[in-house]
What does this fold into?
Amino acid sequence: MSTIKEYLTTDHRHCDELFASMEEVASTSLQAAKEITEKFIDASERHFQMEERVMFAEFEQKTGMTQGPTAMMRQEHEQMRGLLKQLLDAIEENNKDKFFGTTETLMILLQQHNMKEEQMLYTMAQQHLSAESDRIVEMMDSMIVE
Amino acid sequence: MELTGLSTDQAPPISAPLRFFLTAPIFAILAGILILLSDSATLFSRYSIDSIIITHAMTIGFLGFVMLGALMQMLPVLAGVKIYKVETITLYSHIMLVFGVLFMIYGLYFSAPSINLLATIFLVIGFLILLIPMLIALRGANNFTPTVKAINVSLIFAVISIIIGGYLLFGYASGTVSSTHLILANIHSVWAVFGFVGILIIGVAFQVIPMFYVAPRFKQFCKQRVVHIISAGLLVWAFLNIFYPEYAYIAKTWISLFFFAFTSAVWVKLNNRRRPTSDVTVWYWRISSIFMSIGFFAWIFNSYLDDQYTVIISVIIGGGFFLSIMIGMLYKIIPFLVWFHLNSRGYMSIPTMNEMTNKKISILQFILYLFSIIGFIFSYFYPSILVYSALSFILSMVLLQYNIIKPVLVYVKTIKTKPDFDMSAFNMKVE
It folds into this structure.
């Protein structure tokens, strides 16, 4: 079974692929991109929740740090949720400029967020939660999105 | 284990990087004006005072400032480290470097030893009070990725180059230009350009290109070894340059080949990127790869031509390769920082990044810039085009300045007028 770090990093790449496909379809037609955009949003939301409800929660409990890195990551998730909603608004308004302006902002926000997680937080989590790694990955894998 | 890896107050305040970014084009404009005031015969003599002044207005004033601003922003993200008292040290470092460059230009131009002495002190202290805390902060990184290692190595080259540079400038202040001056000037420039700027760009590209463009990752060999190979090449080159200058071309070839391999890899990754967007930053990456490939081969051949083309090669590598990447980066980083800091404060209805800069102006800026670099190269052979190239360069830097101030004005206006202060995003869930 993959470690927490491997599991969540792979999921980042999965979301990136969906993101790229979304942009690809949207560059020809915004309306046609609705479905893939929703798919990307669902995948992102699932990722956020796997962290917030499972991994962050375990990490916070183990380390007692609730105002540390996880708080910052939660805040950035909220910022991204705001942008994800704007993507659907842009499709609704059929506004390509708004759509691609939003994807550009989202991409940088997303990637600098991912770098912090992959290079620091996941490494820290792996160190603190190594004994429970399998259980946590399983919980994330079987989690139902709320 | 250090658990302060990430914290909410870790990103530096927006003023810290912006201070450096916004001053950079001003020095480029100043360099352009100095080129206008000079003539091509003087400029193409590498050791003329004019070319030293203009080179430093560009390398410290533009490249140096952009890199310092970017490093401040990147270290917390890429390495998870916090620079000690970043706000205070950037404030002082920035003031010292601005005056340091101005004093250097004035002191060398008018041969004023006391001003050169001030320039030496301001520049060395200005750089070191920022670079040393960065190096110290990097020691606390808990995950030494290839990018973090590359940044570390590049900062070490930076510190050495700056100390040598300080010594050389002090020579003008004390009137004691020693016999080792030329050798040290060579090491200073090659290490600053390839060791500091070159390795930094390589390290950051490993991380940024695959992530931001959803492009294939760099090969492990490339990530793990290229920085070591180039660093070793730079050390060997310095040794040969001092003791066996006739063999220095071997090390030059070595360094060039690996830079060439790197830029070819960038080109291939960009071709295979998943994101369809092709904006001005992608063009900047592209032309920088082209200039860099031409520049390095020219650098090797220049050894056989008694180094008479050194200034042209500096224009190709410094202007065509490094400057392009820096300008391209500014177009992304400044709008993003403005968006990020406003959004973090709870402002929701803010323009998107793309709306913050003027796209048409950025295209015009790119064309003028490209024209000016090509013009500078050919003005060696056709001196009459130097004036047009300089004017084109100045105009392109004015447009760049406009386009990067625009997002900052959005920031200032939003903070002042507080258009909509809504906190809805903090409890919003996307179903």
About this structure: Residues 4 and 133 of chain A are 6 Å apart (CA to CA). The two ends of chain A are 25 Å apart (CA to CA).
